[in-house]
């Protein structure tokens, strides 16, 4: 608990960001203060790196090294979805890495649906280490009205290890009914990296354990015990900074790039001055957001990794804004969901059709035909975010239309989606084609008091200056190879490696034992009180009641309060000096 004097400072500070967020979201915001910054003097903590491609690591040299984190490879099935190995209980499974949802679920041995029976992954044995949470279950809905799928199953706890970071009693769903493609191509479920407010599993567990408490106090304060994986790592102070960064490799058209997720710190070699930071959209209850708790009645919370989009450009020309707005919603703010669990770019139907018309002579002549185009056309789709342009690499704009034909391609990496709705205000869903072209840094900020340290997303363009020429080379190579473009699939490796920091401050890596090669699949259980809705390939789409609750994790000051209090104090001292 805080004394009244401290509360006055915090409330005064919290009011400032809310005044800003009440207006349209700013184009860009100041970068967060990072412990892992190259200029920071704060010691590193348990940061963890997960390269999606295997890399060489050095053997451990000293016994006085601090663990910063670990590394593990990523699977990629022809750019359709990206997987990472996690250990649940005593078995290791590959799960889809998904920023569009918040929950961890794996396919259980009780799942007998067609998708589960076709899966090559070993199912999760719920009779071994899974501890059911009373009668809690969830019904997760993924995708939009066209591509929707489901995942149902009981909620419980088990020990979960992600790249050498272990959380005991992690809540998850053991899915026994799903038609989600996350259980195909060696995958066995989904690892959601979103915010607690969107966690159906957390809501179900808290409702069961705390007898469906009213309000949101219990839900928010119990995130440290019942929340999503990365949220719990943050609240347990196991990682340097409350962030993770993602880049995705390209496994089609022109195999290239390096996929990697870095948890707890910025990736090595990143020039922080090149990062464009923008605010994450916050939802109030009237917009479908989570109601604030009694201990912070003026707070607004994020639902998902959603940011404002200034404009959309095609081949240097700004596209007209969509007239497709949700009923009764403010269409002046256009936002986009940044979603690794979505294999496509999804946008308003009128804007998508406009793009098709401009790039495809066939579609321009007949809108009922596929948007085919010359493979080497080299169109440039770009999103203006935070006042800067973030293009989609021309190699990620097109796909092969027919095997054996490397002359005529199809622009099917961009498709239409539903209009904004309450609880899902975004017009665009920027999936893997965008993430193959841009590094994205997801900064959670303060999970209990967002106004103290607001959530942000940082962007760095990775598109080379000669991207058009690289597409031309890929087309030429494909035509010389019988008309077939490069394509490959990577199986998620189960071996992980620690990243260490010695007492001298130097970092090193050491290989650790390989996890069990067995794989599990899962889906999320059904719940009576659910968080908020979403409309992505792998994000729950049903809205939830705001009655989900949680008890406070601890009585310490929220993350980031001390620096903020210092600024307020300095401001007050300055005023006294003026007087």
UniProtKB/TrEMBL annotation:
<comment type="similarity">
    <text>Belongs to the peptidase A1 family.</text>
</comment>
<dbReference type="InterPro" id="IPR021109">
    <property type="entry name" value="Peptidase_aspartic_dom_sf"/>
</dbReference>
<dbReference type="Pfam" id="PF00026">
    <property type="entry name" value="Asp"/>
</dbReference>
<dbReference type="GO" id="GO:0004190">
    <property type="term" value="F:aspartic-type endopeptidase activity"/>
</dbReference>
<keyword id="KW-0645">Protease</keyword>
<protein>
    <submittedName>
        <fullName>Acid protease</fullName>
    </submittedName>
</protein>
<dbReference type="InterPro" id="IPR034164">
    <property type="entry name" value="Pepsin-like_dom"/>
</dbReference>
<feature type="active site">
    <location>
        <position position="98"/>
    </location>
</feature>
<feature type="active site">
    <location>
        <position position="339"/>
    </location>
</feature>
<keyword id="KW-1015">Disulfide bond</keyword>
<feature type="domain" description="Peptidase A1">
    <location>
        <begin position="82"/>
        <end position="460"/>
    </location>
</feature>
<feature type="disulfide bond">
    <location>
        <begin position="111"/>
        <end position="116"/>
    </location>
</feature>
<dbReference type="InterPro" id="IPR033121">
    <property type="entry name" value="PEPTIDASE_A1"/>
</dbReference>
<feature type="region of interest" description="Disordered">
    <location>
        <begin position="502"/>
        <end position="555"/>
    </location>
</feature>
<keyword id="KW-0378">Hydrolase</keyword>
<dbReference type="InterPro" id="IPR001461">
    <property type="entry name" value="Aspartic_peptidase_A1"/>
</dbReference>
<keyword id="KW-0732">Signal</keyword>
<feature type="signal peptide">
    <location>
        <begin position="1"/>
        <end position="22"/>
    </location>
</feature>
<dbReference type="GO" id="GO:0006508">
    <property type="term" value="P:proteolysis"/>
</dbReference>
<feature type="compositionally biased region" description="Low complexity">
    <location>
        <begin position="502"/>
        <end position="554"/>
    </location>
</feature>
């Amino acid at each position: 608990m805080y004394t009244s004097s401290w509360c006055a400072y915090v409330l005064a500070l919290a009011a400032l960001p809310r005044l800003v967020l009440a207006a349209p979201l700013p184009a860009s915001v100041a970068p967060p203060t990072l412990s892992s910054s190259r200029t920071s003097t704060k010691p590193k903590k348990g940061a963890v790196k997960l390269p999606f491609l295997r890399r060489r690591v050095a053997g451990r040299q000293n016994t006085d090294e601090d663990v910063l984190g670990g590394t593990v490879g990523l699977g990629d099935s022809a750019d359709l979805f990206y997987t990472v190995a996690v250990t649940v209980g005593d078995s290791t499974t590959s799960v889809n890495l998904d920023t569009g949802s918040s929950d961890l679920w794996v396919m259980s041995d009780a799942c007998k649906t067609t998708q589960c029976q076709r899966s090559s992954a070993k199912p999760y044995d719920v009779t071994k280490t899974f501890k059911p949470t009373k009668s809690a279950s969830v019904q997760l809905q993924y995708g939009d009205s066209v591509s929707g799928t489901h995942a149902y199953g009981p909620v419980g706890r088990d020990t979960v290890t992600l790249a050498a970071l272990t959380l005991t009693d992690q809540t998850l769903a053991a899915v026994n009914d799903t038609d989600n493609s996350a259980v195909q191509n060696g995958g066995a479920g989904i690892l959601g990296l979103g915010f607690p407010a969107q966690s159906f599993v957390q809501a179900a567990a808290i409702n069961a354990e705390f007898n469906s408490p009213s309000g949101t106090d219990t839900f928010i304060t119990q995130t440290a015990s019942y929340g999503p994986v990365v949220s719990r790592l943050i609240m347990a102070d196991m990682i340097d900074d409350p962030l993770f960064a993602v880049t995705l490799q390209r496994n089609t058209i022109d195999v290239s790039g390096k996929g990697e997720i870095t948890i707890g710190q910025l990736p090595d070699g990143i020039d922080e001055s090149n990062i464009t930071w923008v605010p994450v959209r916050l939802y109030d209850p009237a917009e479908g957001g989570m109601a604030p708790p009694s201990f912070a009645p003026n707070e607004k919370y994020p639902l998902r990794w959603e940011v404002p989009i200034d404009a959309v450009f095609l081949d240097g020309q700004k596209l007209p804004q969509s007239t497709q707005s949700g009923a009764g919603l403010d269409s002046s703010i256009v936002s986009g969901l940044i979603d690794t669990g979505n294999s496509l770019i999804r946008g308003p139907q009128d804007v998508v059709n406009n793009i098709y018309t401009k790039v495809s002579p066939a579609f321009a002549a007949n809108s009922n035909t596929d948007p085919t185009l010359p493979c080497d056309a080299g169109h440039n789709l770009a999103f203006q975010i935070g006042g800067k342009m973030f293009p989609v690499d021309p190699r990620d704009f097109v796909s092969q239309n027919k095997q054996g034909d490397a002359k005529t391609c199809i622009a099917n990496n961009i498709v239409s989606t539903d209009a904004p709705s309450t609880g899902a205000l975004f017009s665009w869903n920027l999936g893997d084609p965008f993430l193959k072209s841009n590094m994205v840094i997801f900064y959670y900020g303060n999970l209990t008091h967002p106004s103290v340290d607001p959530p942000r997303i940082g962007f760095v363009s990775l598109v080379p200056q000669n991207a058009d020429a690289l597409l031309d080379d890929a087309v030429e190579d494909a035509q010389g190879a019988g008309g077939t473009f490069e394509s490959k699939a990577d199986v998620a490796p189960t071996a992980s490696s620690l990243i260490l920091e010695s007492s001298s401050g130097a970092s090193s890596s050491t290989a650790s034992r390989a996890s069990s090669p067995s794989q599990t699949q899962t889906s999320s259980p059904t719940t009576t009180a659910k968080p908020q809705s979403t409309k992505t390939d792998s994000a729950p789409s049903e809205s939830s009641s705001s009655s989900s609750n949680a008890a406070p994790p601890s009585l310490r000051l929220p993350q980031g309060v001390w620096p903020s209090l210092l600024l307020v104090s300095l401001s007050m001292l300055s005023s006294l000096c003026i007087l």
